[in-house]
Amino acid sequence: MIKDDVLEPATGPMPWVSPLLAFPKPGPNGKTVSEASQIRLVADSTLSNTAIIREHRVTMTPEELTVEANGSDLYSVVDLTEGYSQIELDEESRQITVVSSHLGPLRYKRLTMGICSAAEIFQKALEKALAGLKGVRNLWDDIFVHGREDDGSHDENLKNLLERLEEKGLTLSTKKAQIRQPEVKFFGLIFSKRGIKVSHDFQQSFNNCAPDSKPHPQGSPLSVGRGGTKVS
Fold first, then answer.
1. What residues make up the domain containing 106?
2. Where is the Reverse transcriptase domain (predicted)?
3. Is 222 inside any structural domain?
4. How many domains is the chain partitioned into structurally?
5. Separation between Cα atoms, residue 189 and residue 227, nearest integer Å
6. Lowest mean pLDDT among 7-21, 23-37, 62-76
7. Distance of alpha carbon 63 from the chain centroid
8. Among positive and negative, which fits the CA dihedral 26, 224, 184, 59?
9. Which of 130, 198, 204, 197 is nearest to 167 (CA)?
10. Residue 126: how many CB atoms within 10 A of its CB?
């Protein structure tokens, strides 16, 4: 990660030093993989997060996206590669992200998953980068494109998106791309000109959730529906 310009040696006063944890990345069908290249390093920033004032953002609901995409019949979904790592931290913020390692103290140069406000910071940055594009919306690092096939609006919207991403230096994952499809899966839902419905794998995961051992709204699978989404 030092070679990838994500981490750098930390010097000077260090008000926060977090442990660095390693987790296997999920592989195909949710199975974990054992290769070293598929290990995800994440800082346990429980204590350092107390120094961060979290920014909250309101994201678009599936219903709002359906209304916006009304009349479209062609869709694409693309996913950013290492999205957080494409956002550089300023000097002051880096000192909050110091982690201990066998190489000594290191600090993040780029946004990391351990930061409590990372999702909101990323959403805001990507919204700003994509501002003004027609038929384009993002939720975190997934980008939804819609338009019509007969008038070429979908292809034009997709072309403008790719040009904007290249201009901003943002890279995409080809593995998860859904390009020029009559229906696409986007955040557990299937979008098409007929509206939205729950995808099979999302429904299966929901059905397989174990019941809560104690009441906790954030820990309940029902919290996924807190936006009031209505699907068939």
1. 2-52+59-195
2. 4-191
3. no
4. 1
5. 14
6. 23-37
7. 20
8. negative
9. 130
10. 23
Assigned domain for 153 exists = yes
Which tokens belong to 60? 């678009």
- The larger pLDDT score, comparing residue 82 to residue 27, is at 82
CB neighbours of residue 96 within 10 Å: 19
Distance CA 207, CA 222 (A): 11
Q: Residue 223's pLDDT is what?
A: 47
| C-alpha span between 200 and 202 (Å, rounded) | 6
216 is a domain residue: no
Q: pLDDT value at position 220? A: 52
pLDDT tens column, 172-230:
998 889 999 999 999 889 999 998 888 877 667 666 766 666 655 445 554 444 444 55
Strand ordering across the sheet containing 195-198: 183-186, 189-192, 195-198
CA distances for 139 relative to 18, 43, 126, 130, angstroms: 29, 24, 9, 12
AA identity, residue 41: L
CATH code, 118: 3.30.70.270
- 209 occurs within a structural domain: no
